[in-house]
Amino acid sequence: MDAPEVRIDVVDSDEAGELLTLRRAAFVAEAQEYGDPFIPPLTQTLDELRADLARTDVVTLAAWVAHRMVGSIRVEVEGTKATLGRLVVVPDMQGKGIGTQLLLAIPPYLPPETSEVWVFTARDAVHNLADAYEGENEALGDLTYAYLRRILGAGGTLPTQG
């Protein structure tokens, strides 16, 4: 199966409604799995999302196939640390490498002093990233989240797996 032609770019405020819809569609399966319809991606309002997109310490990237937004990732930068979260791909496009493309698109958006990348994800999603990151778990209510860390190489690059 051929991978779809994907365009990755920064999400702007005009695309906030589409991003909100994408996240809600993608995170509903996680909410059902954990029996919690109140996870943050499902309770965030459009105004809150627009405020998040306007932050200077946050970059939100999205993947488009033709004119359809099919995935996104949020990157928050604090000092030398970047934290990735809300990585989603629409259900019908999962398994086509879109999530990987989003992850690989991040380094040019990081400040040069960034030395490590952390991923915030549900504990059960860790298997998708375990080869690239080392981690720790944290309980939050009924859910357990994982924080996974990757030390960057010189110039903020993601070291290759060897």
Automatic annotation (TrEMBL):
One Pfam entry name: Acetyltransf_10
Q: Which domain of life is it from?
A: Bacteria
| InterPro entries for the chain | Acyl_CoA_acyltransferase, GNAT_dom
Identify the keywords attached in UniProt to this record, alphabetized.
Transferase
* Organism, as annotated: Actinotalea fermentans
Q: What is this protein called?
A: N-acetyltransferase
Q: Tell me if Transferase is a UniProt keyword of this record.
A: yes
Q: Supply the PROSITE patterns for this chain.
A: GNAT
ATP-binding: is it a keyword of this entry? no
Q: Which GO terms describe its molecular function?
A: acyltransferase activity, transferring groups other than amino-acyl groups
Query: Which Gene3D superfamilies does the entry mention?
Result: 3.40.630.30
What CDD domains does the record point to?
NAT_SF
Q: Where are the transmembrane segments?
A: none
Q: Where is the N-acetyltransferase domain?
A: 17-162
